[in-house]
Each structure stands twice: as structure tokens, then as C-alpha cells.
Design goal:
single chain, 434 Repressor (Amino-terminal Domain), 2 strands
């Protein structure tokens, strides 16, 4: 089982990386997805406790990616599960 961080989960969010690659800001993404900057910031900074599939779908559509590009699971201190 993956080790859990201080937030009670081992999920790592990669929104910063994807936004940078797409040349987008968090505000741009929030407008396209239809959520507040604050809610996306909570997700981006790894403080979210949950995400609705409908929101995840809209984020993926806006960033032209798959959920696995946004979220990975930390399996060790410095490791994540990625392809």
C-alpha cells in the first residue's frame, strides 16, 4: 500500500506542469472549466480532499489530457506511479 502524506493521501497533482506546458494560467483554466480560482488552487496545491468526475473531465478537456496526466500516486518518499 502507498504511504500516505500529512494530508491523509498519497495523490500528487500535476496541474502546474500541465498549465506551464499549455501556456495557460490558473485563471484561464478556471474560466474554461467553470470553477473558481480558489477551488482550482486548492486542487493544484494538493489540499483537495476530493474532485468530482465532471470537474476532472472538464479539466482534461481544457488541457487536452487524461486524468493520469493530472494525478499520480506517490509510492515511496520520492517515487510516483507514472508511465
Amino acid at each position: 500500500m502507498a504511504s500516505e502524506g500529512s494530508e491523509g493521501h498519497a495523490v500528487v497533482v500535476h496541474l502546474d506542469r500541465l498549465l506551464q506546458r499549455r501556456g495557460m494560467t490558473l485563471a484561464d483554466l478556471a474560466a474554461q472549466v467553470g470553477v473558481t480560482n480558489v477551488n482550482l488552487s486548492v486542487l493544484k496545491n494538493g489540499r483537495a480532499k476530493a474532485i468530482r468526475f465532471s470537474t476532472l473531465t472538464r479539466i482534461c478537456e481544457a488541457l487536452e489530457c487524461q486524468p493520469g496526466d493530472i494525478l499520480t500516486v506517490r509510492v515511496g518518499e520520492n517515487e510516483t506511479i507514472e508511465e
